[in-house]
Amino acid sequence: MTPVRFAVVGTGYWARETHAAALAAHPNADLVGVWGRSFARAAELAEAVGARPYEHVDDMFADVDAVAFAVPPDVQAELAVRAASQGCHLLMDKPVSFSTEDADRVVEAVDRAAVRSLVFFTSRFAANQADWLTGVQQLPGWNSGFVRMYASIFEPGNPFGESQWRRTRGALWDLGPHALSILLPALGPVSRVIADRGLGDAVTVVLHHESGAASTMSLSLTAPPGSRGNSWQLFGEDRQTFMPEATTTPVEAMGACISELLTEQPGRWHHPCDVHFGREVVSILQAADVFLHRPPEARRQPVG
User: How far apart are CA 31 and CA 173, in angstroms?
Assistant: First the structure.
């Protein structure tokens, strides 16, 4: 197989340590271009991986076959439309965008150009977690789920703490996509949500699924030391299961994602984690965000 020419959009930690690292190591990918809002940083990353830095992103899109994005979601959505319109396959990060309107534009551009698209939900490409989810989907009767992700990233030395969009948007938009990437395929589409805030950026979202199932996401990027940790559970009438800890690194999971993007399919290409699914995730996050911005009295019923 002739290696596919890839470019990376972004120069931050995730772009360097995950996207560029996985592309540079992949036998069927040729990382040839890097673009970032800082040309100096793009040049630094390009030199490290043997690629060319680009000053103008559209020039880079014209020179490659596929683009991996590691930039804020609002920037990603705009550039993804431009890349797809030039015939580039898209490897996007989560969330696809901050609004369903922007996500719709990406979906329309992908469908119009008939290019491939994948959204990198890490657990969906970590081998043992993907296998666990496949087993879940083969068993009927799951009636509820619970995902708790409590972390702290705004401490000195944490590379994600420098992300302005994470500071502004918080755990709902950063961790919520991870939780939904498991709850949706396990329990089905969501019909409505309710949500409320806790301390810091903590948020709890209750999801009502079309199947009649209900699930809960409890998320925080500002958790104190004693409350940090993750738990992923699904419940059935006579059973429950926990998602195992990943046995692969993010770079290995990204490598699996790249391989799936490069896999040929007869007819129109599709994948469970393509931009259509990414758009579904954004629609739920946006609904929860709208709910959270209601006046407090409209979000809760007093007790007593």
Answer: 29
Nearest to 234 by CA among 150, 135, 151: 135
Residue 251's contacts (CB-CB under 8 Å, 6 or more residues apart) are 17, 18, 21, 22, 25
- What span, in angstroms and rounded, lies between the C-alpha atoms of 2 and 265? 17
Structure tokens at 251: 């770079």
Tokens for 290? 């709208």
Question: What residue type is 2 in one-letter code?
Answer: T
Structure tokens that stand for 293 in this block:
């911005």
Sheet holding 29-35, edge to edge: 52-53, 29-35, 4-9, 66-69, 89-93, 117-120
Write the DSSP string, 49-108: HT-EE-SSHHHHHHH-SEEEE-S-HHHHHHHHHHHHHTT-EEEEESSS-SSHHHHHHHHH
Amino acid at 281: V
Q: List the one residue out of 282, 293, 284 whose CA is nearest residue 76.
A: 282
* Residue 235: φ, ψ to 5°: -125, 140
Residues in CB range of 101: below 8 A, 6 or more apart? none
Query: Could you list the mean pLDDT of each consecutive 10-residue stretch along the chain, which spans 304 residues?
Result: 93 96 97 97 97 98 98 97 98 98 98 97 98 96 97 90 92 98 98 95 97 97 95 96 97 98 89 98 97 80 70
Burial 243-267 (b: 16+ CB within 10 A, else e): beebebebbbbbbbbbebbbeeeee
Identify the helix (H) or strand (E) that includes residue 117. strand 117-120
Compute the CA torsion angle 229, 197, 173, 171 (nearest 10 deg): -30
Residues ≥6 apart with Cβ < 8 Å to 181: 94, 121, 123, 124, 273, 281
Name beta bridge partners: 8: 34, 68
d(CA 26, CA 1): 12
The amino acid occupying position 182 is I
